[in-house]
Amino acid sequence: MGLFDFFKKKKITQNEENLISSNRITHKLYSGIFVFNNKIEELLKQDSFIARSDYKNLIVEYKDLYDSILNFYNNNLISDFSKKYNIKISEINRFLNLYKEIQDLKKESPSIKSHNEEYIKRHLSSQKQYLDTILRDCDPNIMLDEEQRRVILSDEDHTLVIAGAGAGKTTTIAAKVKYLTEKKHIKPSQILVISFTNKAVDELKNRINHNLRISAIISTFHSVGYSILRQSESEQKRVVDGGFMYNVINNYLKTNILTNYALVDKLILFFASYISAPYESNNINDYFKFIANSDFSTLKSNLNQYIKEITDRKTQKKETLRNETLRSAEEVMIANFLYMHQIEYEYEPIYQYKVLDSRKPYTPDFIIKQGEKTTYIEHFGITETGENSRYTQQELERYKTFVNNKIKLHRSHKTDLIYTFSKYKDNRSILSHLEEELLKRGYELKKRNSVEVYKQLIDKQESKYITKLTWFICTFISNFKTQGFQYQKFNEFKQSIKNPRTQLFLEICEVCYLEYQKKLKEFNSIDFQDMINNSAQIIKNKQLSKEKIELKYIIVDEYQDISRQRYNLIKELSQLCNAKIMAVGDDWQSIYAFSGSVLPLFTQFCNVVGYGTELKITRTYRNAQEIINIAGNFIQKNSKQIKKALISPKRIENPVFIQSYDDSYSSNNDKSIGGIYNDIGIAINEAIAQIIKYNSIESKTNIPSILLIGRYGFDAKNMCKSNQFSYDEKSGNVFSSKYGAKVKLNFMTAHSSKGLSAENVIIINAKDNVYGFPSKVEDDPILKLVVSYDDSYNYAEERRLFYVALTRTKNRVFIITPKNKPSEFIKELLNEPHNYPNVTLNGELSSLTTNDNGVKNKCPKCGYPMQLKWNKNYGLKLWICTNDQEICGFMTNDKREKEMSIHKCDWCKDGYLIVKSHNNNFFLGCTNYKNDNSGCNRSINKTQYKLWVNNTFGVNDESLEKQSYYKEETIKDLPSKIIEQKQKTERKPPKINEIKYKDIYLNDQVVKIAVDSFGNLLTDLSLFDKLYKYKNNYKKENAPTLTNQILVQLATNRPTTYEEIMDIYGFGEKYWAFYGQEILMIIITHLAKK
To answer: Beta strands 656-661 and 839-842: pairing type?
Structure first.
């Protein structure tokens, strides 16, 4: 009797009959319950780790059965079904429960999780002796901890190993490879270990290929991509680096582009209006920094076509101004538009009717003239509806009042006025509205020849325009490719983005991209980005068979730096070969967003790959617990970082020292010994002295090894402008003039130090500065299209970089910071002792409070930055507030005085009241004052000033009726000079002290040894002698020659690790294979004895 006959005997509803009819389960399908249960049972009996790939086929195979049984349950038919086919309800329930456990691969089955945990515990015990000695060929002292052993025994399809700094990531990878080959019987050729840099790959090869003698494939991503391309392409391509792209695009922008008139027009528009990135945030403090560092010079100025002669009211000498700088980027856009359309303009002229603006002459933004036509232009930094997020409501009301008053003033005097706003209700641009108003008035817009203007820009301002744009385009294209984007993405960007600056850049960049790709093809070349993208595409398109790439395991080192294109390559390789992925890294050390890394590929690993497991290695063997606590609390201020509680068996007193130096500028600073850099050098040497002292107290080596970490590479050269240090251009290393061979110094940037360790660390540039630590260099907002920025916390990536710097040390960290402008990170460490215990300050800091905006030369009235420049109307070089004049018109000749601004003198026709001082008391005095009382004697003290000053606009200047004292014709024959805008008194910068080589007679021959710039010996001659004898006694055949030059470098830099010795110029892999271990032992033993 069949299933349908069975249910006919029951009294069932029509709906139930329909349900049964639609689920005609055969007897064979019933048996599926038992088969499924038995398969899971057999799986759970195996003495092996169960990965989800071991059962995911069962999910597909038994899905229909699960759905059918579930339907019976939902319709209360399961009991009859059980009785008819004599299937126990418990067996059915077991099936349902087991299937429900495994059906979602994103969730780990409790039964399988329990099995795997028992398997790991059992093998931790049964294989203890094996695991104890698994890496004895690398280092007999290595003893894996339990977390590392769990990583080795686990065998999930996709595993993310989250490891802390110094937790032994490379050690764990090496042990995993050995376990796979010896215990899982995986062929070495079926294991791919992949990392990002040659240095990391060399270290992995040294441990796995050399020490463990396992021939696993260990490679960079680029090499993997290249090998895939070689298998699928008949012709070998030349691999080019970023220099090729730069040269192609730079040459194109300087030559070939001149025939593309439409693109030249776009470039001129970009240079005239958009070369500097606009400010795109509402943070007022960041805006102040943006203004302070902006260059608002005009095209006319940059093409050397701006010449303005004035007379200095103080010295009575003629000055010729050749740089025209305005207040804002929007004013620059207007000025450049007028210039490109051959309309004569003057910036901030004195209004033709002598009226006052807060007791100063009223100066509209522009006056333009063409034929008989004269028009004033006022640009207002608010929207047409009267809004600006930078201003308070009270300030906006003041602003709008000034706007209305200016319009009324021009109407009352019947002067023509065009006024523009920063944004319009119709969303048309400022220039579109300006052009409309000009045409209404009959102005003829005669566009200059763009090609001729462009040629002049190339000739006169290549570095400012062409070089800057070339770097920008190269950065964009490189990251565009790193994200795995194809050419079609340009159209997607342009369709989705309305910002005119971004649109214009994309149109320019798209043409440059096509030109670059064309040149790659012409020269039969490929870049690193295309190498990876193309190889991933080849696999995806099934142009490469599984037989050609037979992998079972892909192990990725430093996975926190993964980019989208590299992830795509791993994914395609894994899918092609059914290979398991083990990704090892630390999200706390993700510091390469600028080169394409995407942090969510790490933090959301399991979701990205589909399913997987996360394991942690939290026991660190590098840092003391005190360092870990400080660094861990610092990085975990960002709640988006993965939480980890790192532990260490090491303890240390006074783990972090902050060493301050006096950064106060003084004219007495002696440039011959490095000026302010000498103070930095002294502070670094004081830190070195502390390290030497602790080495002695704690009975450590007498020759301390110290890693100097800078935020930028030029930090090393800067410290060597001090007489305290000398710089080696060849190695990039620095040497202390005071301590010489008593210490072993090594300089690295924070980025290049990642993955390395040092006995002691000195962070040398913790200052609050654009190029300080944290770095405050702002990337162009257009790059957000192709760079994955982390905005989860203030300076999120810089915090991770600082964490990297802190955790390089095996002992202590010393941080060098200026007294007056310490880094924000330093303030945090010192202001929060509950979070950062055991942080010691050596010296003093002027303030631990956070700067309100960190901008120098703040306006005392509104807080905006002031800029020092010539005011052509006053004939004075003044500190002028950069805020809109409608809000603040403060200007002064002496920024020490914080209250009184410059004003028009009300006692004479042509004088200005400027800041003067007598007996350290400030007052305003007229520029027409003369000692013999023949001039204007007007003066105002602070008390009088408060009563006298006002903010009224449009009042007639009553001084026009007063006496005139200033006679310019009497000084016309005085000598003149050219003053460049922003030019400062020339001071010869301190020179970099570089090491030199001098000949000495050693071992019966002349040898060039290293000395610092003062002649002090840097080469350790005793060590050189030992290395020289070792070389002469070396007898292996085919060994490369150890030259005296290499020996001098070894005896000067004294490397003690594989990474350090591989940095010695001329000492490559072949030298390492023959001499490496023995030379390191000679140096380490030598230093220990000294």
So the answer is: parallel
